[in-house]
Amino acid sequence: MSKILVVGASGLVGTNLVKNLRAKGREVARATSKTKLESDQVHLDLVSGAGLDQAFNGVEKAFFLSPPNHPNAHELLNPLIDKAREAKLGKVVLMTALNVNASDDIPFRKAELRLEQSGVPYNIIRPNWFMQNFNTFWIKGILEHNTIYLPVGHEARTSFIDAHDISATAAALLETSQFDGQDFDLTGGESLTHDEAAALIAKATDKPIRFQDITPEAMLAGLLQAGLAPDYAQFLLVILDHLKQGYAERRTDAVEKITGRRPITFEQYAKDHRHAWV
């Protein structure tokens, strides 16, 4: 059976995508930058390009995303797309991010255009901000001070999406040619302020969790202290400002259209992950 290559297989979306594909009986090759491999892994270092040719051996379809902390995503994704064209893959699903198609100069959009012009059957998915950011990237303030610290204001709404819905959507697209050549903005089914999100986490945990708006400078200091590269930290500040301006509020029906079920609600997400905050 031909394999499906999953780039980013150890991440949140990739891990669940692999589970979804295997549940459908598909053989999966998990890409990893590590050199000590498990039986179902292939070595692929996107930064150096090591393992690129070998990773596509026996592969029929692929899922691509760019690892975090690399603002120039197209520099990592374009070689993958070129190799997919050379290998004549039957399908590529590329994950970028909501609103990156606003300008052709945005690095993610450059990769999208490369794929659109490659001749490879494709889908592009652009998810909104992950619900799981609250139990990963933003968790320190919650655990230490019962507070979500972000420079996004109290009025802006976001149609947060559960990463499980992203994985389910990608898996469905890899299984069908019905939507080939289309791009999809993936969102949750509701748009919430960060105060409302904090209230739902507080309800699930029975803790007095709140949201506090902070300055971009304070956010930058925290990101750098956490070890992020300065250029990537600045990139995050830009997209957080876009959120504050209201660009993350809109909702789409793409998840339900592709998977056949409604997106997971933030309230359900908070219940599912309550153990992370208690």
Key traits:
278 residues, Rossmann fold, UDP-galactose 4-epimerase, domain 1, seven-stranded parallel β-sheet, 40% helix
List the helices and strands and how they pair.
Elements: E1 3-6, H1 12-23, E2 27-32, E3 41-43, H2 52-55, E4 59-64, H3 73-86, E5 91-95, H4 107-116, E6 122-127, H5 139-145, E7 147-150, H6 163-175, E8 182-186, H7 194-205, E9 210-213, H8 216-225, H9 230-244, H10 254-259, H11 266-272
Parallel strand pairs: 1-2, 1-4, 2-3, 4-5, 5-6, 6-8, 7-9
Helix pairs in contact: 1-6, 3-4, 7-11, 8-9
Description:
The protein has 278 residues and is of the alpha/beta class. It has two domains: 3-127, NAD(P)-binding Rossmann-like Domain (Rossmann fold); 128-161 and 187-249 and 260-278, UDP-galactose 4-epimerase, domain 1, CATH 3.90.25. It has eleven helices and nine strands. The strands form two sheets. It has a seven-stranded parallel beta sheet with strand order 3-2-1-4-5-6-8, sandwiched between helices. A two-stranded parallel ribbon has the order 7-9. β1 (3-6), α1 and β2 (27-32) form a beta-alpha-beta unit. α1 packs across α6, α3 (73-86) packs parallel to α4 (107-116) and α8 packs antiparallel against α9 (230-244). The longest helix is centred in the last third of the chain and has 15 residues, at 230-244. It is globular, with a radius of gyration of 19 Å. The model has no long low-confidence stretch (mean pLDDT 96).
